[in-house]
Amino acid sequence: VWAPPQRNVVVFSSSTFTDTQAERTALLQQVLPQIQMEAVRAGIMLSVADLRFGVKDQSTQRHMTWDVCRLEIERCFEQSSSLFFLSLQSLKYGYTPAPRTVPVADFDE
Fold first, then answer.
1. pTM of the model
2. Following CA atoms 95, 101, 103, 108 in sequence, which dihedral angle do they give, to the nearest 10 degrees?
3. Which residue among 14, 66, 101, 106 is the one 20 to 30 A from 59 at the CA level?
């Protein structure tokens, strides 16, 4: 089914949460407003999805952080003209969750 091109750009911003606070804040408060003004001039609505405040402790405790992030990436893609992904890198390795389940055979070893 044909549809006219969307003029929305939703950027998913990804990084480790604990060591990029200043960079994420600068992006949202200083850089994003300037880029949004330029985008509006071109007829584009630009927004950034930042999950710093969207991943609840309960999701982390239940090992569901990836599920929350994946659903947000899908939402960004559905609401945007394409997939836009920004990865902020730092010195921290990143999130490595424990598995949700462990096979019984692993306990026998």
1. 0.67
2. 80
3. 106
Phi first, then psi: what are they for 68, rounded to 5°? -65, -45
Full 3-state SS string of 10-31: EEEEECCCCCCHHHHHHHHHHH
Q: Would you say 33 and 69 are in contact if contact means Cβ atoms under 8 Å apart?
A: no
Q: Tell me, what DSSP letter sits at residue 80?
A: S
> What confidence tens digit (pLDDT) does each residue in 41-92 have?
888 999 998 877 656 555 556 667 778 888 889 999 999 988 899 988 877 7
Distance CA 39, CA 41 (A): 5
